[in-house]
Amino acid sequence: MQALVFRHSLAREAASAIGGRLDRRAFVSRLAPVRLEDVDELPLPSEDWVRVETIFSGLCGSDVKQILLNGARDNPLTALVSFPHVLGHEAVGRRADTGERVVLNPWLSCGPRGIEPPCEACAAGRYPWCRNFRSGNLPVSIHIGNCAAATGAHAERFSAHGSQLFAIPDQVSDEAAVLADPVSVSLRSILLAPPPAGQAVLVYGSGTLAFAAIALLRHLYPAAEVWAATRPGPRAGLATRLGAHAALSSTPDELIAQVARRVGTTADSLDGRAAQRLLRYRKLHSSELCAKEVVLIGVRWNAVLRSRGRAGHPRDRLAVRAVRPGAVPAGDAGRPVRLRTRARQN
Ligand SMILES: [Zn+2]
Ligand SMILES: [Zn+2]
User: Fold this and answer.
1) What structural domains and CATH numbers belong to the chain?
2) How much is the pTM?
3) pLDDT in tens, 88-124
4) Closest listed ligand to the CA of 122
5) How remote is the CA of residue 114 from the centroid of ligand 2, in Å?
6) 64 Cα to the center of ligand 1, angstroms
7) How far is the CA of 60 from the centre of ligand 1 (A)?
8) pLDDT per residue over 241-282, tens digit each?
9) Could you give the angle at the alpha carbon of 277 between the alpha carbons of 271 and 279, nearest 5°?
10) Which bound ligand lies closest to the C-alpha atom of 179?
11) CA–CA separation, 178 vs 158, rounded Å?
12) 78: CA distance to ligand 1 center in Å?
């Protein structure tokens, strides 16, 4: 069958990285680490695994980064991958055994690894925090799409443990179902940190997780005011269509000014040092200036913070302080706020 295979080879990676500077096609050339190949199907890791005919396989930001070889070298997750592997983990497909349409929970945690009893994290349903990504009857890997023994979904067929597959109700289309993975990432984060009553929520981002967050916030908390800091043009249009009350700039200085205006203050009256410090966190800056809490969705934030010697553990609090502008709400003026980091917790 046809499959998108990633082969770890320093020579190939170097050739692509150098060639890719001149022509991005080098990232997908014959010499690149990633190639569309004709492969034999792997044996199933155990009896309770099944084959699934792929209907759609979503492109995750992590796939793109891997193919363009621009993942952070210090990202701790790179130690949890085995090669060669077939990419793809945001899948909708049809079970080969029962014919059911299913979506995939890609985590290769205790259950799929045949580990009994499960670790504490798995027992609590927190599969991304599983302690056993390096043990059991699979090679090192955190999810389908980066495991050498489990075919990923960028292929005609992929394989999964029965517990990873969820039947899709008939009224849900394949196009909607394929969003189950990224939308659940945003959903979980929002449920863990619901918007405080009476305060606006600023969603910063122009990708699937951000758009899912906007739609979910509007759906789950109709009373919440939702602002989107997003790229101009079609993305801003999409943010509005999904329910954002305002589409703000994604350029730091402009965004700070816009947020300041909206909360009834000026950018200059915001604490200068705090603003500067926040700006250094690139994306994470401005939303913090009037927020009590910043929720970081997606795995990359954790890597960014870690690489800057800041909070590494998802539960850690990041001691970045900003002064709340006086206007909203009046009682809280001048109190330092805290950033809480949250890693992807779907
Ligand atoms: Zn993904
Ligand atoms: Zn576990």
Assistant:
1) 40-172 (3.90.180.10), 180-342 (3.40.50.720)
2) 0.78
3) 999 999 999 999 999 999 999 999 999 999 999 999 9
4) 2
5) 10
6) 10
7) 4
8) 999 999 998 876 777 778 777 777 665 555 444 444 444 444
9) 100
10) 1
11) 15
12) 15
